[in-house]
Every structure is written in structure tokens, then in C-alpha cells.
Amino acid sequence: MINVVFLLLIFFLMTSQIARPDPFEIAPPAAAQDSPADPVPALLLSAEGEMAFAETRGAAAIKAFIAAQQQGGPAPQLRADKQTPAATVARLLKTLAEAGLASVDLVVEGS
Q: One GO MF term, please (predicted)?
């Protein structure tokens, strides 16, 4: 049994590739702050169910949000208040899916 283990060990040592170390150590430069990110389109949803996108509010906000996403760009975001009922968020996500948005990122706060 030990012979088999040694044979396997030799086999793996001979067939594996060893990564070459870097020729010298480098330290990447530090930046004072990250470069500004491109703005991500976000549909806002209040605890009372009021919606807003850019300058539009209410049902028009959904239409403007969908129209903006059909032009392409980064993945859309939904920013809902933490007091918003889950049923309201689910209804809105269903409406967006029916309008053709394949995915919408729900923004949450990390703990």
C-alpha cells in the first residue's frame, strides 16, 4: 500500500507544473481615493410605495426606468427602503421582469 502512495506522489510531482516566482517584488502605487464610478441607474422605492427615477415620480418613473434600460448600460438597481413591505418589492420586480428587464440588482446595506 505504501508503494502505491509513493508511486502516486512521484507521479504528481513529475506531472505537475510549478509556478515560477516573480523575478522581483513590486509594490503597487496607492491612490488617495477610487476613481469615480459611472452612475448606475437606480429606481427608488419608498416605504410608502412611492417610486422615483431621475426626475420622474410615480408610475411614470417605472416607464422612464424601463426606457433607460432598453438603451443599454450597466445593470439597473432597485433601491428600496428597509421598511418597504416585501410584497411591494416583489410586485415591482415582477412588473420589471414582465417589461423585459432580465435582472435588477436589489441594493442592500451590509452588516
A: transmembrane transporter activity
SS (H, E, C) the chain: CHHHHHHHHHHHHHHCCCCCCCCCCCCCCCCCCCCCCCCCCEEEECCCCCEEECCEECHHHHHHHHHHHHCCCCCCEEEECCCCCHHHHHHHHHHHHHCCCCCCEECCCCC
Total domains in the fold of the chain: 1
Q: Which residue bears the cell 410608502?
A: 48
User: 74 in a domain, yes or no?
Assistant: yes
Is the pTM higher than 0.70? no
Q: What is the pLDDT of residues 51-82, one digit of tens each?
A: 888 888 988 998 998 888 888 777 888 888 88
Residue for grid cell 505504501: 2
